[in-house]
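note to self — DONT lose this again. spent like an hour looking for the file last time. sequence + predicted structure for the chain T wanted, 243 res
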Amino acid sequence: MIPLRDENPSGTFPWMTIGIISANVLAFFYELGLGPKLQSFLMVYGLVPVKVTYFGQIPGIELGDVVVPFFTSMFLHGGWFHLIGNMWFLWIFGDNIEDRLGHGCFLLFYLLCGIGASVAHIAFNPESGIPSIGASGAIAGVLGAYMISFPMARVVTLVPLFFFLEVLYLPAFLFLFYWFFIQLFNGTLAIALSTQTGGGVAWWAHVGGFITGVVLVLLFPKSRWARQRRYIVWYDRRRGPWW
């Protein structure tokens, strides 16, 4: 399922969401200019679980080499589709969470979700020497917060049905819970098949980020500047309840 937009207008301008998207785009263009140096760059600024797991046992690894990638890795991407997919989800769902938390708190929330995602990834891949990069873990936290904050907001979704594509108007809790279930299912399957330490999608980073977002949005105070409605009526006489 691909989200096209949500019917949940934000009450404030999403400066921080746009800033985070811009930072990711600029970082990606910087990656493109590295050429053959890219791999060594990712080994330094991507999150390499084995460096954290065996910190103190690997010669030449200092504290900064372990801490810095927790932040830098969430602004790096492995390709155009990786970047565009992540930024699309952030653009659709990020503005409402930024409005709910406030600009500064949203940035803190986003970074903490990214760190929570990284911790989950390391926990399930402690021996991996492959650098993990991408904003998807932090964005998963935004999705978790959205599901809790605006469960009945409608998400306009492109859904493949057999040989056809249908546009459905789904409540956010249904769309986002399905998204979370897919991450959890694939992460569990990867463990069962003993493939989680390889390359590919960091499923458990998504799960960890999502859960972190759910918890943090309940702990963070609501911004006094927020001007949007908490509950969005999703019934429409012309479209029916969902589509």
